[in-house]
TrEMBL record:
The keyword Transport belongs to this UniProt entry's keyword annotation: yes
Protein's recorded name: ABC transporter ATP-binding protein
This protein's record includes keyword Nucleotide-binding: yes
GO MF annotation terms: ATP binding; ATP hydrolysis activity
Domain ABC transporter residue range list: 4-238
One Pfam family here: ABC_tran
Species this chain originates from: Pedobacter cryophilus
UniProt entry keywords in alphabetical sequence: ATP-binding, Nucleotide-binding, Transport
Domain of life: Bacteria
InterPro entries in UniProt: AAA+_ATPase, ABC_SmlMolc_Importer, ABC_transporter-like_ATP-bd, ABC_transporter-like_CS, P-loop_NTPase
Length: 326
């Protein structure tokens, strides 16, 4: 029996414009870390709310361990009892202390155990030093950690995260990703998160789902999807891919191809193809170079830092490409 299954799930908010999700078929296994990726308005958060029980599908079923998930009309407090969801709004008591926000989720039957578990959870998420601070005094990233601690302290079977890294700065983002992965393994929980940034899914998840206009258009392991995106939409989200038709450096066996910027090699020495530099921007580990070749713009991530400026002629070759279906 599948752990979590969606069968032909449809939820529309408007008859005239595409909204919500449509005919979603999805099977999720226990212990997976899944990222749902898509542009704003693609249906990511709607899908998360349908899984949790905040919303009821108009068509189809959402099953958890073979049982239909009850919607808000069937429960006084919406949401499945064995799941926890952390939304972008972060439902925290901003004038209460961090410790009290987290411990409030536990029963008072054993106060000593309650105190100890709260301390352990805070330490696990690296917020034990904030125990006596009020939520209103914390940064956005610190509040996010408190919200996650509050969600996992009761050891749910499923943790749902809506854009968990949106308020976290770059330095702490990797640390929080590591903490979520450790939590999932330590507690044995399934994590389903939503993100507009595919790097979150590639680095953290073992399964990624791409959604567009309310429909799943690609899913698989991060490696499978990255090296076989199948659509221009997925390729662009994954790595600023160049979407190219009819170019001499590509075969003619497919109508359209994706070429990731780091798969184009630049050289000052004569190689296969000659292009003109349109712009050069330093980006730390590489320089982002925009080329013009036969009227087409090509984006290149050059880690060799070939000396270039606007208007220069430069040679390039393509090391790898992927055929697309659309």
């Amino acid at each position: 029996m599948p752990f979590l299954q969606l069968n032909k799930v449809t939820k529309n908010f408007s008859e005239n414009t595409p909204s919500g999700v449509s005919e979603i078929d999805l099977t999720i296994h226990a212990g997976q870390i899944i990222t749902i990726i898509g542009e704003s308005g693609s249906g990511k958060t709607t899908l998360l709310k349908l899984i949790y029980g905040y919303l009821v599908p108009q068509i189809g079923t959402v099953l958890f361990n073979g049982e239909p998930i009850k919607g808000p009309t069937e429960k006084l407090i919406p949401g499945h009892d064995e799941m926890k969801m952390v939304t972008q709004e972060l439902t925290l008591n901003i004038y209460a202390k961090v410790f009290d926000n987290i411990s409030s989720q536990l029963s008072n039957a054993d106060l000593e155990a309650k105190h100890e578990l709260t301390l352990q959870t805070m330490e696990f998420l690296r917020i034990d030093h904030l125990a006596n601070k009020k939520i209103v005094e914390l940064s956005g990233g610190e509040q996010q950690r408190v919200a996650i601690a509050r969600a996992v302290i009761t050891e749910p079977k499923v943790l749902l995260l809506d854009e968990p890294f949106s308020q976290v700065d770059t330095i702490l983002k990797r640390q929080l990703r590591d903490d979520i992965e450790r939590l999932a393994k330590f507690l044995g929980i399934t994590v389903i998160m939503v993100s507009h940034d595919p790097t979150d899914g590639l680095s953290l998840s073992n399964h990624v789902i791409f959604i567009k206009d309310g429909k799943i258009i690609r899913e698989g392991s991060p490696q499978e999807v990255y090296f076989d995106p199948r659509s221009a939409y997925v390729a662009k989200l994954l790595g600023k891919a160049n979407i190219i038709k009819n170019a001499p450096f590509l075969p003619y066996t497919a109508p359209i191809y994706a070429v990731y910027p780091h798969h184009i090699q630049l050289s000052e020495q004569p190689t296969a193809y000659l292009a003109t530099v349109r712009s050069v921007h330093f980006n730390g580990a590489y320089q982002e170079v925009e080329l013009i070749f036969e009227g087409k713009n090509l984006l290149v991530h050059d880690a060799q830092f070939v000396s270039l400026q606007k208007g220069d002629a430069v040679y390039f070759d393509v090391n790898q490409y992927f055929s697309l279906e659309n």
